[in-house]
Amino acid sequence: MALAAVLGAAPTALADGPGGGVGCGDYICEVEADDPGQASTGSSAGGQAGSEPQGSSGSATSSNPWTCVYELLSPQPPAASLDWEGHTPGDGAVYKQTCHYLDSLNSVVRYQWLADPPPAAATVDPAVLAQRAVDSMKLAGPDIASPHPAGKYLVGMPMWMWVNQSPTTYGPNTASASAGGVSVTATAMVSKIVWAMGDGSVVTCAGPGTPYTAAAGKSDSPTCGHTYDRTSADQSGGRYRVTATSTWTIDWQVTTGGGAQAGQLTETRQTQILVPLAELQVIN
Question: pTM for this structure?
């Protein structure tokens, strides 16, 4: 059984090359399509002619998001079949063309005549698919619960820092991406948050921090905190600019095709807030 996958091409007639021609490998073919246009006279897998999705030239991205797989039909259609597109058996061959749109949730299946078998091409890089999966997660910076701009903070008093946790701001967040018969699943989780406090201090916290409760009194946070030793009166707007930078650690692995490959990616996201710091006023 012959298989070939086309990355970055909308489903289109390849008999004469869709605008830019075909460059292929053992299983993967990259096709440059100036204008995929409408379907040729080849029929769909259901036996009826159909139009094909539109797409632009380039790689399999949001601007040209199609990934197509070709499978040699066995046995080939009878000589009278419209799938030969006016050709006779032995003059080229008829393939089953399956094209997926980005996340593989939408697909087009039809029969396609090709003058020559898809020649050889580069394989799908699972790391590229992993990055595509990460991009679909919409990872964001820390959702800071404390400190917050409306709070009242005093010099010399422990400040507890913590963040709200959600799939997009802390994790875990899981997504998959597929192309050319290869599927990759990635899981992202924040591994640390670095707080730049605006007074020159930097605090690194391994977790989301511990929410403050009245029972803690004036004690330091057990997981993530800072104590200012001067007011923010000399800062722009009278507030410290606090920047929380989260480091996302993303583990990915191939789930279909491509062997037992796995890897890890790292990304960072930031959130900034302005925090006022005042001195305790003692009235005699």
Answer: 0.61
Domain with 16, as residue range(s), is 3-114
Residue 130 shares a structural domain with residue 258: yes
Inter-CA distances, 195 with 21, 119, 279, Å: 52, 53, 22
Same domain, yes or no: 260 and 145: yes
Dump pLDDT digits (tens) for 240-270. 999 999 999 999 999 987 678 899 999 999 9
Interior angle at CA 228, CA 171 and CA 140, nearest 5: 20
Residues 245-254: b if buried by 16+ CB within 10 A, e if exposed: bbebebbbbb
The verdict on residue 203 lying in a domain is yes
What lies within 8 Å, CB to CB, of 167 at 6+ separation is 137, 173
Structural domain count, the chain: 2
Of the given ranges (35-44, 167-176, 262-271), which has the lowest mean pLDDT? 35-44
State yes or no: pLDDT of 233 exceeds 60: yes
- Please name the residues in contact with 47: beta carbons below 8 A apart, sequence gap of 6 or more: none
User: Which among 105, 251, 138 is positioned nearest to 184, based on CA atoms?
Assistant: 251
Any domain includes 120:
no
What are the contacts of 74-83 at 24+ separation with CB within 8 A? 74/1, 77/111, 82/41, 82/42, 82/43, 82/49, 83/42, 83/43, 83/111, 83/113
CA distances from residue 45 to 94, 202, 283 in whole angstroms, order as listed: 11, 61, 85
Domain membership flag for residue 119: no
190 in any annotated domain = yes
